[in-house]
Design goal:
Length: 259
């Protein structure tokens, strides 16, 4: 499923394609649509296969199984253009693998809070299961806990609207048993990515607390055209939602250069 926004005044740059995180949908980017449109970017936000409003293609159980499907979507939607890929978390890992497998489709890659680095011993958070619970209130308590454990560093951000958005997303997750995020699959893919690559992480990302120097070093060592990593102070994993002003101040200059 594709969601499209056209700016009032286009900046002439290649379309920007957004991939969301695991157990999510395009709404992981809900606070980014306005700033990106104001900067003149044409936006296409994807509900990845098995998430949001997208069905699960036959045989797809993880990110590596959806690359051909996503490549076909891009090839049909943009037959004469390359695109810029902006991927959050699971979507950043997926975008990296896609850019490696189909370099002719992608002219720039920006990953945000992406896993697939291989530092699995750096993941101290633990999420609580909720699908087995019958009581909606007990489910809600666990959703709130999970938001604070993984997604958001500032607990004050966990308000009614944020919880409702999160719950709507996780209830439509049809790929709950995916596993490759805990491997080094993104680092291995970056070796084959031909376009410029940049990264943005919340400085307090629960995926890699106190390990972002290692993450940055691995990315830099395995990327041909490394544009660097930017860290958003005080922000957690869902950095573009938690601190949109600082996030877009970091992102927009990366996207500004014509290629």
């Amino acid at each position: 499923m594709l969601h499209h926004w056209q700016p009032t005044q286009a900046n002439g740059l290649a379309p920007l394609v957004l991939f969301h995180g695991g157990s999510g949908s395009w709404t992981h980017w809900v606070r980014s649509i306005g700033p990106l449109l104001q900067a003149g970017h044409e936006i296409w936000a994807v509900d990845l296969p098995g998430f949001g409003a997208s069905d699960v293609p036959s045989g797809v159980i993880d990110a590596d199984g959806m690359l051909d499907v996503l490549a076909q979507v891009l090839a049909v939607q943009f037959p004469l253009q390359t695109v810029r890929l902006l991927g959050f978390s699971f979507g950043g890992m997926t975008a990296g693998m896609l850019a490696a497998a189909y370099p002719q489709l992608v002219q720039q890659l920006v990953v945000v809070g992406a896993p697939g680095i291989g530092l699995t011993n750096k993941h101290p958070f633990r999420l609580k299961g909720w699908r087995h619970l019958d009581d909606p209130r007990e489910q809600l308590i666990r959703h709130v806990f999970n938001l604070g454990a993984l997604m958001l560093n500032d607990q004050r951000c966990i308000d009614r609207d944020t919880v409702a958005l999160h719950v709507a997303n996780v209830q439509r997750d049809n790929l709950p048993r995916r596993r490759i995020s805990s491997t080094d699959v993104l680092v291995r893919a970056l070796v084959r990515v031909q376009c410029p690559v940049a990264a943005i992480y919340g400085a307090c990302d629960a995926l890699y607390p106190a390990a972002l120097d290692e993450v940055e070093a691995l990315m830099a060592a395995n990327t041909r055209q490394w544009q660097g990593m930017q860290r958003i102070a005080g922000a957690g994993h869902w950095v573009q939602y938690e601190n949109p002003q600082a996030f877009h101040a970091a992102l927009l200059p990366l996207l500004a250069a014509k290629r």
